[in-house]
Amino acid sequence: MAKSRTQYVCTNCGKRSPGFLGRCPQCGEFNTMQEEVLEASKSAPVKQNRQPAGTLRAEPQRLHEVQAQVEDRYRVPVEEFNRVMGGGVVPGSISLIGGDPGIGKSTLLLEVSALLANSLGHVLYVSGEESAHQIKMRADRLNLNAPDLFLLTETNLSNIFEQVQRIDPAVLIIDSIQTVYADDLDSSPGLVSQVRECASRLQALAKSSGISVFLIGHVTKEGNIAGPRVLEHIVDTVLYLEGDPFQTFRLLRSVKNRFGATSEVGVFEMQGAGMVEVPNPSEAFLAERVVNAPGAAIAVTMEGTRPLLVEVQALTSPTSFGNPRRTPNGVDMNRLLLVSAVLSKRVGLRLHEQDIFVNVIGGLKIDEPASDLAMAMAMASSYFDVPIPADLAIMGEVGLSGEIRAVSQIAMRLNEASKIGFKRALIPRMRRKIDQIPKGLELLPVRNIVEALQVAVPR
Ligand code: TYD
Ligand code: MG
Questions:
Q1: Taking the alpha carbons of 447, 450, 453, 458 in that order, is the dihedral positive or negative?
Q2: How confident is the model over 81-97, as a mean pLDDT?
Q3: Which of 70, 115, 210, 343 is deepest in the core (most CB within 10 A)?
């Protein structure tokens, strides 16, 4: 057996060091350095049989001779899922689905695997976290009926590979990658070296056999379990399932996709019977809207290639003592500070003596600058206690001198606003003509924040 060497890797920033350090010299975090085995034993049993001998050597090919296989995707009858995957699941691809514990990753993938099993044949769902009985109970609750879906409760990677060879599934789900381990490595499951090695072996399996693999990864706050971030470069597609645990909406967001657009978003709702797709998210986000309430504005934001209408609420209230508070929920703190500074300086609102709360309805996070103007109007509306007209949709970036800057893809945003039933749109004054203005939508172009206030918060 070859002697194994070790090094230490920071689970937070990836800094490597030959010896143990209590504090990472790169990111300054304590207790994040973790041992990693560099050279495992030479007789790795899994490594040898994961690829048939004949396929090891690759030959160069002329680019135009390479067969393009565009149509080769497994479509899931859940359009929101296909959208995020770039049109469907690519055979032989490996995807990572990350998210906080309890957000609904297992639920979503169990549903998807049952649907795939019904159209493709064998699908293998490997769980290292729950017993087959628990998964069956969940499947009953979700009303799933898939005779070709196989469950396996196993954490040893070689045993998983053995069962994969026996069952020959089209799709393999590993729930979660932090629980599986390769027994020829010395480190325990969940450590960086284990998680990375298991993922690369599964990647090799996907590439050589054409099986589509999904890895579930928990986002952890502790330093001793490797998070999904250490895997992002190994896999083809990285999706994150996010959402406020107290709300029912869940967003599946792609942050990396070798087969499609990134930052695409699929919207789901966690209901009693599982994750249900939300085909019209703008309508869903505006469902509980109270019209004519001061402090509420409708922003039109782009999530990937899709425009979304969301309600941005703001509340300003006099500070009782000391420093005024700024509490963002769903928006970036820096943008909140910028917008309130512009309102103080350019419009003269006395926000330095006000606490400001900003909330995006539906658990959505909007970090696009194009939603600045809606946030500014919501704050001013709450400050003056004057409601924003209910038929007004708002888009625009706020600049430091109070100017309203152009936004991208304005035609798509206007279309969505008109589709939902908005009659007027507050937009930046654009130098280029907007093509295809939807019928029945009045455009109100403004140059700066003072003009915007005259339209949105008339006093
Ligand atoms: P789960 O998929 O187990 O989360 P993860 O795998 O990301 O850790 O989801 C757990 C939560 O979802 C749990 O709090 C209960 C809730 N849930 C529902 O609301 N409806 C359902 O149909 C199911 C199966 C779960
Ligand atoms: Mg789970």
A1: negative
A2: 92
A3: 343
